[in-house]
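Researcher: Going back to the complex we discussed earlier. I've cleaned up the inputs and rechecked each line, so this should be the final set. Can you rerun the prediction on the complete assembly and write out the structure?
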Amino acid sequence: MSEQKTKRVLIIGIVGGLAQITARLLLQNHPDWEIVGIDSRDTNRVQNIKGLKTITMKYSRGNFEKIFREENFDIIYHLARFSHASLGAENLTKRLELSVMGTNRILDMGLRFGVKKIIVLSTYHVYGALPDNSIFLPEDSPLKASIQYPELLDVVEMDQIATNFMWKYQKKIEVVVLRPSNIIGNQIKNTMSRYLQNPLALRPVDYNPMFQFIHEFDMASVLMRSAQELPTGIYNVATDDFVSLRNALEVVGVKGIPFSMALAGPLNKFLKKMNIKIPDYLIDYLKYSCLISNKELKKHLGENFYRFNMEETLKLLRA
Amino acid sequence: MLDQLGLGLNEQEKAKQQMVLQRLKERYHNYSDPWGFDLNTVGKALSILLPIYSRYFKVRVFGAENIKDEPYIFVSNHTGQIPIDGALITLATALESNPPRILHSMVERFLASFPFLGDLSAQTGSILGDRENCKWLLNKKESILVFPEGVRGISKSTSHFYELQPFTNGFYRIALNTKTKILPVTVVGAEEMFPLVVHAKKAGKALGLPTLPISANLFPLPSPIDIYFGEPIELPEQLDAEAQDKEIRPHVHEIEKVIKGQIKHGLENKREFLEPLKRPVEFISRLKEFL
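Model: Rerun complete. Updated structure for the full complex:
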Protein backbone atom coordinates (compact mmCIF):
# COMPACT_ATOMS: atom_id res chain seq x y z
CA MET A 1 0.00 0.00 0.00
CA SER A 2 2.87 2.37 0.75
CA GLU A 3 3.67 2.38 -3.02
CA GLN A 4 0.47 4.34 -3.63
CA LYS A 5 1.40 7.13 -1.23
CA THR A 6 2.07 10.60 -2.63
CA LYS A 7 5.76 11.12 -3.20
CA ARG A 8 7.74 14.32 -3.14
CA VAL A 9 10.27 14.44 -5.96
CA LEU A 10 13.20 16.77 -6.64
CA ILE A 11 14.62 17.05 -10.17
CA ILE A 12 18.02 18.73 -10.29
CA GLY A 13 18.80 20.29 -13.67
CA ILE A 14 15.18 20.95 -14.69
CA VAL A 15 16.11 23.34 -17.51
CA GLY A 16 17.50 20.39 -19.49
CA GLY A 17 15.22 18.93 -22.17
CA LEU A 18 15.37 15.41 -20.75
CA ALA A 19 14.53 16.62 -17.23
CA GLN A 20 11.42 18.39 -18.53
CA ILE A 21 10.18 15.34 -20.43
CA THR A 22 10.79 13.24 -17.30
CA ALA A 23 8.84 15.69 -15.14
CA ARG A 24 5.94 15.62 -17.58
CA LEU A 25 5.92 11.80 -17.68
CA LEU A 26 6.10 11.53 -13.90
CA LEU A 27 3.13 13.86 -13.50
CA GLN A 28 1.12 12.08 -16.20
CA ASN A 29 1.65 8.72 -14.52
CA HIS A 30 1.52 9.93 -10.91
CA PRO A 31 -0.73 13.03 -10.82
CA ASP A 32 -0.65 12.99 -7.03
CA TRP A 33 3.15 13.29 -6.82
CA GLU A 34 4.62 16.68 -5.96
CA ILE A 35 7.56 17.62 -8.13
CA VAL A 36 10.06 20.43 -7.62
CA GLY A 37 12.56 21.22 -10.34
CA ILE A 38 15.68 23.25 -9.62
CA ASP A 39 18.45 24.62 -11.79
CA SER A 40 21.28 27.11 -11.58
CA ARG A 41 20.16 28.33 -15.00
CA ASP A 42 17.07 30.49 -15.44
CA THR A 43 14.04 28.25 -14.80
CA ASN A 44 11.81 30.65 -16.76
CA ARG A 45 13.08 28.62 -19.74
CA VAL A 46 11.18 25.58 -18.44
CA GLN A 47 7.95 24.80 -20.30
CA ASN A 48 4.71 25.22 -18.44
CA ILE A 49 4.14 21.78 -16.90
CA LYS A 50 1.07 21.57 -14.73
CA GLY A 51 2.00 20.51 -11.21
CA LEU A 52 5.72 21.27 -11.55
CA LYS A 53 7.20 23.86 -9.23
CA THR A 54 10.48 25.35 -10.41
CA ILE A 55 13.17 27.21 -8.52
CA THR A 56 16.25 28.95 -9.86
CA MET A 57 19.08 28.55 -7.36
CA LYS A 58 22.85 28.26 -7.19
CA TYR A 59 24.03 24.75 -6.41
CA SER A 60 25.57 25.80 -3.10
CA ARG A 61 25.64 23.78 0.10
CA GLY A 62 23.44 26.35 1.85
CA ASN A 63 20.78 26.36 -0.87
CA PHE A 64 20.69 22.56 -1.02
CA GLU A 65 20.40 22.27 2.77
CA LYS A 66 17.51 24.73 2.80
CA ILE A 67 15.50 22.99 0.08
CA PHE A 68 16.17 19.48 1.43
CA ARG A 69 15.21 20.53 4.96
CA GLU A 70 12.01 22.29 3.90
CA GLU A 71 10.67 20.02 1.18
CA ASN A 72 11.20 16.59 2.73
CA PHE A 73 11.83 14.76 -0.57
CA ASP A 74 11.32 11.02 -1.13
CA ILE A 75 13.04 10.77 -4.51
CA ILE A 76 15.85 12.82 -6.06
CA TYR A 77 16.67 12.86 -9.75
CA HIS A 78 20.21 14.12 -10.24
CA LEU A 79 20.12 15.06 -13.93
CA ALA A 80 22.47 18.04 -13.78
CA ARG A 81 25.48 17.53 -15.97
CA PHE A 82 27.84 20.20 -17.15
CA SER A 83 28.51 20.33 -20.83
CA HIS A 84 32.10 19.92 -21.90
CA ALA A 85 31.25 21.81 -25.05
CA SER A 86 30.21 24.99 -23.27
CA LEU A 87 32.85 24.96 -20.56
CA GLY A 88 35.84 23.59 -22.49
CA ALA A 89 38.69 21.37 -21.38
CA GLU A 90 40.53 24.28 -19.73
CA ASN A 91 37.82 24.56 -17.12
CA LEU A 92 38.38 21.13 -15.65
CA THR A 93 38.71 22.53 -12.14
CA LYS A 94 35.40 24.34 -12.43
CA ARG A 95 33.66 21.25 -13.79
CA LEU A 96 35.15 19.08 -11.08
CA GLU A 97 33.81 21.51 -8.51
CA LEU A 98 30.34 21.54 -10.08
CA SER A 99 29.93 17.87 -11.06
CA VAL A 100 31.92 16.04 -8.44
CA MET A 101 31.47 18.23 -5.38
CA GLY A 102 27.88 18.94 -6.35
CA THR A 103 27.10 15.23 -6.61
CA ASN A 104 28.80 14.60 -3.32
CA ARG A 105 26.63 17.24 -1.63
CA ILE A 106 23.41 15.89 -3.13
CA LEU A 107 24.17 12.32 -2.03
CA ASP A 108 25.27 13.41 1.41
CA MET A 109 22.15 15.48 1.98
CA GLY A 110 19.90 12.79 0.61
CA LEU A 111 21.22 10.53 3.34
CA ARG A 112 21.00 13.19 6.06
CA PHE A 113 17.46 14.29 5.24
CA GLY A 114 15.88 10.87 4.87
CA VAL A 115 15.49 10.68 1.08
CA LYS A 116 14.38 7.15 0.06
CA LYS A 117 15.92 7.00 -3.41
CA ILE A 118 18.42 8.91 -5.53
CA ILE A 119 18.60 8.40 -9.28
CA VAL A 120 21.84 9.63 -10.84
CA LEU A 121 22.19 10.19 -14.57
CA SER A 122 25.71 9.24 -15.63
CA THR A 123 26.73 8.36 -19.21
CA TYR A 124 28.21 5.53 -21.26
CA HIS A 125 31.10 7.88 -21.99
CA VAL A 126 32.64 6.67 -18.72
CA TYR A 127 33.71 3.44 -20.47
CA GLY A 128 35.66 5.33 -23.13
CA ALA A 129 35.78 4.80 -26.90
CA LEU A 130 38.83 2.61 -27.33
CA PRO A 131 39.97 0.39 -30.20
CA ASP A 132 40.12 -2.66 -27.91
CA ASN A 133 36.63 -2.32 -26.44
CA SER A 134 34.68 -5.56 -26.26
CA ILE A 135 31.18 -5.47 -27.58
CA PHE A 136 28.23 -4.87 -25.29
CA LEU A 137 30.17 -3.77 -22.23
CA PRO A 138 28.48 -4.78 -18.99
CA GLU A 139 28.19 -2.46 -16.00
CA ASP A 140 31.24 -3.89 -14.24
CA SER A 141 33.60 -3.00 -17.09
CA PRO A 142 36.48 -0.72 -16.14
CA LEU A 143 35.84 3.00 -16.57
CA LYS A 144 38.64 3.89 -18.96
CA ALA A 145 37.40 7.18 -20.36
CA SER A 146 39.75 9.46 -18.44
CA ILE A 147 42.87 7.46 -19.39
CA GLN A 148 42.76 8.93 -22.87
CA TYR A 149 41.04 12.20 -22.10
CA PRO A 150 41.62 13.85 -18.71
CA GLU A 151 38.78 16.24 -19.56
CA LEU A 152 36.42 13.35 -18.84
CA LEU A 153 37.80 13.01 -15.34
CA ASP A 154 34.79 14.79 -13.83
CA VAL A 155 32.34 12.46 -15.60
CA VAL A 156 34.15 9.35 -14.37
CA GLU A 157 34.64 10.82 -10.87
CA MET A 158 30.97 11.71 -10.60
CA ASP A 159 29.97 8.18 -11.58
CA GLN A 160 32.42 6.64 -9.13
CA ILE A 161 31.32 8.87 -6.26
CA ALA A 162 27.73 7.82 -6.86
CA THR A 163 28.54 4.09 -7.10
CA ASN A 164 30.83 4.12 -4.04
CA PHE A 165 28.13 5.90 -2.08
CA MET A 166 25.56 3.41 -3.38
CA TRP A 167 27.42 0.36 -2.04
CA LYS A 168 28.44 2.04 1.20
CA TYR A 169 24.91 3.09 2.18
CA GLN A 170 22.86 0.45 0.38
CA LYS A 171 21.02 -0.49 3.57
CA LYS A 172 20.06 3.11 4.32
CA ILE A 173 19.17 4.63 0.95
CA GLU A 174 18.44 3.32 -2.54
CA VAL A 175 20.70 4.65 -5.29
CA VAL A 176 20.30 3.96 -9.00
CA VAL A 177 23.06 4.99 -11.42
CA LEU A 178 22.04 5.08 -15.07
CA ARG A 179 24.61 5.01 -17.86
CA PRO A 180 22.70 5.72 -21.07
CA SER A 181 24.15 5.49 -24.57
CA ASN A 182 23.52 8.38 -26.97
CA ILE A 183 20.24 10.09 -26.11
CA ILE A 184 18.90 11.97 -29.10
CA GLY A 185 15.79 13.97 -29.74
CA ASN A 186 14.43 17.36 -30.64
CA GLN A 187 14.18 18.66 -27.11
CA ILE A 188 17.65 17.91 -25.88
CA LYS A 189 20.57 19.95 -27.07
CA ASN A 190 23.51 17.57 -26.76
CA THR A 191 26.36 17.37 -29.26
CA MET A 192 25.17 14.12 -30.90
CA SER A 193 21.64 15.43 -31.52
CA ARG A 194 23.06 18.60 -33.03
CA TYR A 195 25.50 16.60 -35.18
CA LEU A 196 22.66 14.51 -36.62
CA GLN A 197 20.31 17.47 -37.06
CA ASN A 198 22.70 19.53 -39.17
CA PRO A 199 21.93 19.51 -42.89
CA LEU A 200 25.62 18.80 -43.47
CA ALA A 201 27.92 16.79 -41.25
CA LEU A 202 31.46 15.48 -41.46
CA ARG A 203 31.40 11.79 -42.31
CA PRO A 204 34.56 9.85 -41.41
CA VAL A 205 35.91 7.93 -44.41
CA ASP A 206 38.54 5.99 -42.48
CA TYR A 207 36.39 4.80 -39.55
CA ASN A 208 32.80 3.69 -39.21
CA PRO A 209 31.98 3.01 -35.56
CA MET A 210 28.76 1.46 -34.29
CA PHE A 211 26.31 3.45 -32.21
CA GLN A 212 23.30 2.83 -29.99
CA PHE A 213 20.77 5.65 -29.89
CA ILE A 214 17.88 6.08 -27.47
CA HIS A 215 15.04 8.44 -28.08
CA GLU A 216 14.70 11.16 -25.43
CA PHE A 217 11.16 9.97 -24.65
CA ASP A 218 12.37 6.40 -24.04
CA MET A 219 15.15 7.66 -21.79
CA ALA A 220 12.67 9.77 -19.83
CA SER A 221 10.47 6.71 -19.54
CA VAL A 222 13.37 4.69 -18.08
CA LEU A 223 14.04 7.53 -15.62
CA MET A 224 10.39 7.59 -14.59
CA ARG A 225 10.25 3.81 -14.09
CA SER A 226 13.52 3.89 -12.13
CA ALA A 227 11.65 5.49 -9.25
CA GLN A 228 9.65 2.34 -8.51
CA GLU A 229 10.97 -0.50 -10.63
CA LEU A 230 14.75 -0.41 -10.38
CA PRO A 231 16.47 -1.55 -7.20
CA THR A 232 19.82 -0.14 -6.05
CA GLY A 233 22.40 -0.72 -8.75
CA ILE A 234 24.16 0.47 -11.88
CA TYR A 235 22.30 0.12 -15.17
CA ASN A 236 23.40 0.67 -18.73
CA VAL A 237 20.58 2.08 -20.81
CA ALA A 238 20.75 1.13 -24.47
CA THR A 239 18.80 -0.52 -27.22
CA ASP A 240 19.46 -3.99 -28.62
CA ASP A 241 19.88 -2.37 -32.03
CA PHE A 242 23.08 -0.82 -33.23
CA VAL A 243 23.85 1.16 -36.33
CA SER A 244 27.03 2.32 -38.02
CA LEU A 245 27.68 6.03 -38.12
CA ARG A 246 27.44 6.13 -41.91
CA ASN A 247 24.08 4.33 -41.89
CA ALA A 248 22.81 6.61 -39.13
CA LEU A 249 23.65 9.68 -41.24
CA GLU A 250 21.89 8.07 -44.19
CA VAL A 251 18.74 7.21 -42.20
CA VAL A 252 18.52 10.69 -40.73
CA GLY A 253 19.08 12.22 -44.17
CA VAL A 254 22.24 14.15 -43.36
CA LYS A 255 24.49 14.86 -46.28
CA GLY A 256 27.85 13.52 -45.14
CA ILE A 257 30.97 15.38 -46.16
CA PRO A 258 33.76 12.78 -46.50
CA PHE A 259 36.42 13.58 -43.98
CA SER A 260 39.53 11.84 -42.64
CA MET A 261 39.64 11.55 -38.88
CA ALA A 262 43.38 12.21 -39.10
CA LEU A 263 42.39 15.85 -39.65
CA ALA A 264 39.85 15.93 -36.81
CA GLY A 265 42.28 17.08 -34.10
CA PRO A 266 43.71 20.06 -36.03
CA LEU A 267 40.22 21.00 -37.27
CA ASN A 268 38.85 20.99 -33.74
CA LYS A 269 41.66 23.28 -32.59
CA PHE A 270 40.76 25.67 -35.40
CA LEU A 271 37.03 25.51 -34.53
CA LYS A 272 37.82 26.33 -30.90
CA LYS A 273 39.51 29.52 -32.08
CA MET A 274 36.27 30.33 -33.92
CA ASN A 275 34.44 29.73 -30.62
CA ILE A 276 32.81 26.51 -31.90
CA LYS A 277 33.48 24.09 -29.06
CA ILE A 278 33.33 20.35 -29.70
CA PRO A 279 34.69 18.17 -26.90
CA ASP A 280 37.98 16.51 -27.94
CA TYR A 281 36.93 13.14 -26.54
CA LEU A 282 33.99 12.96 -28.94
CA ILE A 283 36.48 12.57 -31.79
CA ASP A 284 37.31 9.09 -30.51
CA TYR A 285 33.60 8.21 -30.38
CA LEU A 286 33.57 8.91 -34.14
CA LYS A 287 36.43 6.42 -34.55
CA TYR A 288 35.83 3.55 -32.15
CA SER A 289 32.68 1.79 -31.02
CA CYS A 290 31.53 1.71 -27.43
CA LEU A 291 28.49 -0.56 -27.35
CA ILE A 292 26.93 -1.36 -24.00
CA SER A 293 24.87 -4.26 -22.70
CA ASN A 294 21.31 -3.68 -21.51
CA LYS A 295 20.87 -7.09 -19.84
CA GLU A 296 20.66 -5.73 -16.27
CA LEU A 297 17.99 -3.21 -17.18
CA LYS A 298 15.94 -5.83 -19.01
CA LYS A 299 15.83 -7.99 -15.89
CA HIS A 300 13.67 -5.33 -14.25
CA LEU A 301 11.92 -3.50 -17.08
CA GLY A 302 11.25 -6.47 -19.36
CA GLU A 303 12.40 -7.32 -22.86
CA ASN A 304 10.75 -4.55 -24.84
CA PHE A 305 10.67 -1.39 -22.82
CA TYR A 306 11.32 1.04 -25.69
CA ARG A 307 8.67 2.77 -27.68
CA PHE A 308 10.90 3.68 -30.63
CA ASN A 309 13.29 1.42 -32.51
CA MET A 310 16.59 2.73 -33.81
CA GLU A 311 15.29 3.76 -37.21
CA GLU A 312 12.30 5.59 -35.75
CA THR A 313 14.53 7.29 -33.20
CA LEU A 314 16.78 8.60 -35.95
CA LYS A 315 13.94 9.63 -38.25
CA LEU A 316 12.17 11.48 -35.45
CA LEU A 317 15.14 13.84 -35.30
CA ARG A 318 13.90 15.27 -38.59
CA ALA A 319 10.24 15.28 -37.65
CA MET B 1 41.84 -1.20 -63.28
CA LEU B 2 42.86 -4.62 -61.99
CA ASP B 3 41.85 -6.07 -65.36
CA GLN B 4 44.16 -3.62 -67.16
CA LEU B 5 47.01 -4.73 -64.93
CA GLY B 6 46.24 -8.35 -65.69
CA LEU B 7 45.26 -8.91 -62.05
CA GLY B 8 41.51 -9.11 -62.59
CA LEU B 9 39.42 -12.25 -62.37
CA ASN B 10 39.62 -14.69 -65.26
CA GLU B 11 36.42 -16.36 -66.49
CA GLN B 12 36.74 -19.34 -64.17
CA GLU B 13 37.44 -17.15 -61.15
CA LYS B 14 34.59 -14.83 -62.06
CA ALA B 15 32.16 -17.75 -62.15
CA LYS B 16 33.47 -19.03 -58.82
CA GLN B 17 33.25 -15.59 -57.21
CA GLN B 18 29.66 -15.11 -58.36
CA MET B 19 28.56 -18.54 -57.22
CA VAL B 20 30.17 -18.14 -53.79
CA LEU B 21 28.81 -14.63 -53.34
CA GLN B 22 25.31 -15.75 -54.25
CA ARG B 23 25.45 -18.56 -51.70
CA LEU B 24 26.92 -16.25 -49.07
CA LYS B 25 24.04 -13.83 -49.71
CA GLU B 26 21.54 -16.63 -49.15
CA ARG B 27 23.22 -17.51 -45.88
CA TYR B 28 23.96 -14.02 -44.53
CA HIS B 29 21.12 -11.87 -45.88
CA ASN B 30 19.72 -11.44 -42.35
CA TYR B 31 23.04 -11.31 -40.56
CA SER B 32 24.47 -8.16 -39.05
CA ASP B 33 27.13 -7.83 -36.43
CA PRO B 34 28.30 -5.03 -34.17
CA TRP B 35 31.55 -4.64 -36.09
CA GLY B 36 29.95 -3.65 -39.38
CA PHE B 37 30.04 -6.84 -41.50
CA ASP B 38 29.05 -5.97 -45.07
CA LEU B 39 28.50 -8.50 -47.87
CA ASN B 40 29.14 -5.93 -50.60
CA THR B 41 32.63 -5.38 -49.23
CA VAL B 42 33.11 -9.16 -49.06
CA GLY B 43 32.22 -9.33 -52.77
CA LYS B 44 34.77 -6.63 -53.63
CA ALA B 45 37.43 -8.28 -51.46
CA LEU B 46 36.83 -11.60 -53.25
CA SER B 47 37.40 -9.91 -56.63
CA ILE B 48 40.75 -8.57 -55.49
CA LEU B 49 41.97 -11.55 -53.50
CA LEU B 50 40.82 -14.47 -55.64
CA PRO B 51 43.57 -14.07 -58.30
CA ILE B 52 46.18 -13.72 -55.54
CA TYR B 53 44.78 -16.82 -53.85
CA SER B 54 44.56 -18.99 -56.93
CA ARG B 55 47.33 -17.68 -59.19
CA TYR B 56 49.95 -16.02 -56.98
CA PHE B 57 49.93 -18.42 -54.04
CA LYS B 58 48.35 -21.30 -56.03
CA VAL B 59 46.49 -22.41 -52.92
CA ARG B 60 45.58 -26.10 -52.59
CA VAL B 61 43.03 -27.13 -49.98
CA PHE B 62 42.85 -30.56 -48.35
CA GLY B 63 40.12 -31.82 -46.05
CA ALA B 64 37.46 -29.21 -46.89
CA GLU B 65 34.93 -32.03 -46.54
CA ASN B 66 35.67 -32.00 -42.79
CA ILE B 67 33.96 -28.61 -42.52
CA LYS B 68 30.30 -29.35 -41.83
CA ASP B 69 27.51 -26.82 -41.60
CA GLU B 70 28.06 -26.10 -37.89
CA PRO B 71 30.12 -23.60 -35.88
CA TYR B 72 33.77 -24.33 -35.13
CA ILE B 73 36.77 -22.70 -33.61
CA PHE B 74 39.31 -23.08 -36.41
CA VAL B 75 42.71 -23.42 -34.72
CA SER B 76 45.72 -22.89 -36.96
CA ASN B 77 49.48 -22.67 -36.92
CA HIS B 78 50.71 -19.14 -37.62
CA THR B 79 53.48 -18.63 -40.14
CA GLY B 80 54.89 -16.20 -42.66
CA GLN B 81 56.00 -12.99 -40.87
CA ILE B 82 52.79 -11.15 -41.82
CA PRO B 83 49.33 -12.61 -41.18
CA ILE B 84 48.54 -13.50 -44.81
CA ASP B 85 47.82 -17.05 -43.65
CA GLY B 86 44.67 -15.79 -41.89
CA ALA B 87 43.35 -14.19 -45.08
CA LEU B 88 44.08 -17.36 -47.10
CA ILE B 89 42.33 -19.66 -44.59
CA THR B 90 39.34 -17.29 -44.57
CA LEU B 91 39.25 -17.36 -48.38
CA ALA B 92 39.59 -21.15 -48.42
CA THR B 93 36.55 -21.58 -46.15
CA ALA B 94 34.51 -19.17 -48.27
CA LEU B 95 35.55 -20.83 -51.53
CA GLU B 96 35.95 -24.50 -50.69
CA SER B 97 33.56 -25.37 -47.86
CA ASN B 98 30.04 -26.47 -48.58
CA PRO B 99 28.01 -24.37 -47.94
CA PRO B 100 30.40 -21.40 -48.27
CA ARG B 101 30.80 -19.51 -45.04
CA ILE B 102 32.44 -16.44 -43.57
CA LEU B 103 35.16 -17.32 -41.13
CA HIS B 104 35.70 -14.55 -38.59
CA SER B 105 39.39 -14.15 -37.93
CA MET B 106 40.77 -12.42 -34.87
CA VAL B 107 42.82 -9.30 -35.47
CA GLU B 108 45.29 -7.52 -33.24
CA ARG B 109 44.38 -4.27 -31.53
CA PHE B 110 46.75 -2.24 -33.71
CA LEU B 111 44.83 -3.28 -36.82
CA ALA B 112 41.48 -2.43 -35.26
CA SER B 113 42.73 1.09 -34.56
CA PHE B 114 44.28 1.57 -37.99
CA PRO B 115 42.47 4.03 -40.33
CA PHE B 116 40.69 2.32 -43.25
CA LEU B 117 42.18 -1.13 -42.51
CA GLY B 118 40.30 -1.52 -39.22
CA ASP B 119 37.01 -0.66 -40.91
CA LEU B 120 37.75 -2.81 -43.95
CA SER B 121 38.68 -5.87 -41.92
CA ALA B 122 35.52 -5.47 -39.81
CA GLN B 123 33.39 -5.26 -42.95
CA THR B 124 34.84 -8.52 -44.22
CA GLY B 125 34.15 -10.31 -40.94
CA SER B 126 37.35 -9.93 -38.94
CA ILE B 127 37.02 -8.85 -35.34
CA LEU B 128 39.23 -7.74 -32.49
CA GLY B 129 40.64 -10.81 -30.70
CA ASP B 130 38.70 -10.62 -27.47
CA ARG B 131 36.95 -13.37 -25.51
CA GLU B 132 33.60 -11.60 -25.34
CA ASN B 133 33.66 -10.92 -29.07
CA CYS B 134 34.42 -14.61 -29.77
CA LYS B 135 31.61 -15.77 -27.49
CA TRP B 136 29.13 -13.43 -29.15
CA LEU B 137 29.91 -14.86 -32.60
CA LEU B 138 29.93 -18.49 -31.47
CA ASN B 139 26.61 -18.03 -29.71
CA LYS B 140 25.28 -16.77 -33.05
CA LYS B 141 26.52 -20.07 -34.56
CA GLU B 142 29.30 -18.34 -36.49
CA SER B 143 32.82 -19.78 -36.76
CA ILE B 144 36.02 -18.08 -35.71
CA LEU B 145 39.68 -18.47 -36.61
CA VAL B 146 42.32 -18.29 -33.91
CA PHE B 147 46.10 -18.52 -33.86
CA PRO B 148 46.96 -19.67 -30.34
CA GLU B 149 50.69 -19.20 -30.99
CA GLY B 150 50.05 -15.46 -31.24
CA VAL B 151 52.76 -13.17 -32.60
CA ARG B 152 55.40 -15.78 -31.61
CA GLY B 153 54.14 -17.88 -34.50
CA ILE B 154 54.85 -15.39 -37.25
CA SER B 155 58.00 -13.89 -35.78
CA LYS B 156 60.39 -16.78 -36.33
CA SER B 157 63.81 -16.65 -37.99
CA THR B 158 64.53 -18.93 -40.97
CA SER B 159 66.27 -21.50 -38.78
CA HIS B 160 63.03 -22.00 -36.78
CA PHE B 161 60.53 -22.19 -39.68
CA TYR B 162 57.61 -24.58 -39.05
CA GLU B 163 58.48 -25.02 -35.37
CA LEU B 164 55.09 -24.86 -33.70
CA GLN B 165 55.15 -22.53 -30.68
CA PRO B 166 53.25 -23.59 -27.53
CA PHE B 167 49.54 -22.74 -27.70
CA THR B 168 47.87 -20.56 -25.11
CA ASN B 169 44.81 -22.06 -23.38
CA GLY B 170 42.30 -19.25 -23.95
CA PHE B 171 40.72 -20.66 -27.12
CA TYR B 172 40.03 -23.99 -25.41
CA ARG B 173 38.23 -22.29 -22.53
CA ILE B 174 36.09 -20.37 -25.05
CA ALA B 175 35.34 -23.67 -26.81
CA LEU B 176 34.27 -25.25 -23.51
CA ASN B 177 32.24 -22.21 -22.56
CA THR B 178 30.32 -22.14 -25.83
CA LYS B 179 30.41 -25.92 -26.45
CA THR B 180 32.02 -25.40 -29.86
CA LYS B 181 34.08 -28.08 -31.59
CA ILE B 182 37.70 -27.38 -32.57
CA LEU B 183 38.73 -27.73 -36.18
CA PRO B 184 42.53 -27.95 -36.61
CA VAL B 185 44.02 -26.14 -39.60
CA THR B 186 47.56 -26.21 -40.92
CA VAL B 187 49.13 -23.89 -43.45
CA VAL B 188 52.25 -25.04 -45.24
CA GLY B 189 54.20 -22.80 -47.61
CA ALA B 190 53.72 -19.44 -45.91
CA GLU B 191 57.12 -19.42 -44.22
CA GLU B 192 58.78 -19.37 -47.65
CA MET B 193 57.09 -16.07 -48.56
CA PHE B 194 59.95 -14.47 -46.63
CA PRO B 195 62.63 -17.17 -46.95
CA LEU B 196 65.51 -15.31 -45.34
CA VAL B 197 64.55 -13.65 -42.07
CA VAL B 198 66.40 -12.86 -38.91
CA HIS B 199 64.60 -11.50 -35.87
CA ALA B 200 66.69 -8.95 -34.01
CA LYS B 201 64.65 -9.25 -30.82
CA LYS B 202 67.03 -7.23 -28.61
CA ALA B 203 67.17 -4.36 -31.10
CA GLY B 204 63.40 -4.54 -31.42
CA LYS B 205 63.01 -4.35 -27.67
CA ALA B 206 65.25 -1.28 -27.57
CA LEU B 207 62.91 0.32 -30.11
CA GLY B 208 59.86 -0.67 -28.08
CA LEU B 209 58.79 -3.36 -30.56
CA PRO B 210 58.08 -7.03 -29.74
CA THR B 211 60.61 -8.01 -32.43
CA LEU B 212 62.48 -6.53 -35.39
CA PRO B 213 62.34 -8.76 -38.49
CA ILE B 214 65.10 -8.23 -41.04
CA SER B 215 64.14 -9.88 -44.31
CA ALA B 216 65.86 -10.25 -47.68
CA ASN B 217 62.60 -9.36 -49.45
CA LEU B 218 59.99 -6.73 -48.58
CA PHE B 219 57.04 -8.31 -50.38
CA PRO B 220 55.88 -11.92 -49.97
CA LEU B 221 57.24 -14.26 -52.63
CA PRO B 222 54.74 -16.45 -54.53
CA SER B 223 55.31 -19.54 -52.42
CA PRO B 224 52.66 -22.21 -53.17
CA ILE B 225 50.36 -22.63 -50.18
CA ASP B 226 48.73 -25.82 -48.94
CA ILE B 227 45.93 -25.61 -46.38
CA TYR B 228 44.90 -28.72 -44.46
CA PHE B 229 41.58 -28.87 -42.60
CA GLY B 230 41.65 -31.66 -40.03
CA GLU B 231 38.74 -33.58 -38.57
CA PRO B 232 36.69 -31.74 -35.92
CA ILE B 233 37.75 -32.45 -32.36
CA GLU B 234 34.98 -33.09 -29.83
CA LEU B 235 35.25 -31.56 -26.37
CA PRO B 236 35.27 -33.58 -23.13
CA GLU B 237 31.83 -33.30 -21.57
CA GLN B 238 32.98 -33.31 -17.96
CA LEU B 239 35.54 -30.49 -18.29
CA ASP B 240 34.49 -27.04 -17.10
CA ALA B 241 35.56 -23.82 -18.84
CA GLU B 242 36.95 -22.58 -15.52
CA ALA B 243 39.00 -25.74 -14.90
CA GLN B 244 42.61 -25.34 -13.79
CA ASP B 245 45.33 -24.99 -16.43
CA LYS B 246 46.71 -28.43 -15.56
CA GLU B 247 43.37 -29.97 -16.58
CA ILE B 248 43.08 -27.92 -19.79
CA ARG B 249 46.68 -28.32 -20.90
CA PRO B 250 46.59 -32.03 -21.99
CA HIS B 251 43.69 -31.28 -24.34
CA VAL B 252 45.53 -28.31 -25.85
CA HIS B 253 48.63 -30.53 -26.24
CA GLU B 254 46.54 -33.01 -28.21
CA ILE B 255 45.54 -30.28 -30.65
CA GLU B 256 49.17 -29.16 -30.95
CA LYS B 257 50.08 -32.77 -31.73
CA VAL B 258 47.44 -32.98 -34.49
CA ILE B 259 48.74 -29.80 -36.10
CA LYS B 260 52.38 -30.89 -35.77
CA GLY B 261 51.41 -34.09 -37.58
CA GLN B 262 49.72 -32.07 -40.32
CA ILE B 263 52.81 -29.85 -40.66
CA LYS B 264 55.04 -32.92 -41.04
CA HIS B 265 52.72 -34.40 -43.67
CA GLY B 266 52.40 -31.02 -45.40
CA LEU B 267 56.18 -30.51 -45.60
CA GLU B 268 56.62 -33.97 -47.13
CA ASN B 269 54.10 -33.16 -49.83
CA LYS B 270 54.92 -29.50 -50.32
CA ARG B 271 55.45 -28.15 -53.83
CA GLU B 272 58.95 -27.03 -54.68
CA PHE B 273 59.40 -23.30 -54.56
CA LEU B 274 62.81 -22.18 -53.35
CA GLU B 275 64.66 -24.45 -55.79
CA PRO B 276 63.89 -22.20 -58.83
CA LEU B 277 65.36 -19.26 -56.87
CA LYS B 278 68.71 -20.84 -57.57
CA ARG B 279 67.84 -20.47 -61.27
CA PRO B 280 66.85 -16.79 -61.49
CA VAL B 281 65.89 -16.86 -65.20
CA GLU B 282 63.34 -19.62 -64.61
CA PHE B 283 62.07 -17.88 -61.48
CA ILE B 284 61.50 -14.60 -63.35
CA SER B 285 59.70 -16.42 -66.15
CA ARG B 286 57.40 -17.99 -63.53
CA LEU B 287 56.68 -14.54 -62.14
CA LYS B 288 55.95 -13.26 -65.66
CA GLU B 289 53.62 -16.19 -66.18
CA PHE B 290 51.56 -14.95 -63.26
CA LEU B 291 51.57 -11.31 -64.29
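Model: Worth noting: Chain A has a mean pLDDT of 90.
Researcher: Good, that matches what I expected from the previous run.
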